[in-house]
Amino acid sequence: MAKDLDVHAGGLLSAAADSVAVAAGVLADGDDVSVSARPSGAGVAAFDAVSAAVRARLASRIAGQASDVGAAAERYDATDGGNADTIAVTV
User: Fold this and answer.
1) Would you say the C-alpha torsion 74, 76, 81, 83 has a positive or negative sign?
2) Is 2 left (phi over 0), alpha (psi -120 to 50) or beta?
3) pLDDT tier at 90 (50, 70, 90 boundaries)?
4) CA distance 68 to 42
5) DSSP states of 20-79 as a string?
């Protein structure tokens, strides 16, 4: 028994756009707090630097996956539309 595949390309494109916004939010969530001159300030600065690097990598990953989802939705839509046109001409 065959199963139907139903893909809503517009929804995928919308989700991809939302993901890009999430990635920008992750990147922008850093705090610009001045570090104190106390000995613990160096540790706080180091932790902030690592945290910023992790946020940048996470934002890049989210944006990359969003791009992949958008490209897949566009490819699916083009293929599905092309096949529908071919069937319409044949029938």
Assistant:
1) positive
2) beta
3) low
4) 39
5) HHHHHHHHHT----PPPSSHHHHHHHHHHHHHHHHHHHHHHHHHHHHHHHHHHHHHHHHH
Does the pTM surpass 0.70? The reply is: no
* Residue whose pair of structure tokens reads 């001045």 in the numeric block: 34
Q: Quick one: DSSP state of residue 4?
A: -
Model pLDDT, residue 68: 92
| Pairwise CA distance, residues 74 & 90, whole Å | 24
Q: Which of 19-33, 36-50, 61-75, 76-90 has the highest mean pLDDT?
A: 61-75
